[in-house]
Amino acid sequence: MGKGLIAAVLFVALGGCTTVKGTFCAVSAPLRLSAKAVDTLSDEEARALLAHNRKGEKLCGWRA
């Protein structure tokens, strides 16, 4: 997963903080990676991905 995609995910997640609750759920989906992709993530990228998925669990009812 490229850094550009992680940055885009982060912006979507942060943008959801200032919009109507349902907007994030309407435009986002859980991010799922292969084991190989997980092995290549930096700590910062992993934190951003986890934050995105946890926000979706809280706001949208996503299941892990």
Automatic annotation (TrEMBL):
PROSITE patterns in the cross-refs: PROKAR_LIPOPROTEIN (PS51257)
Can you say what this protein is called? Lipoprotein
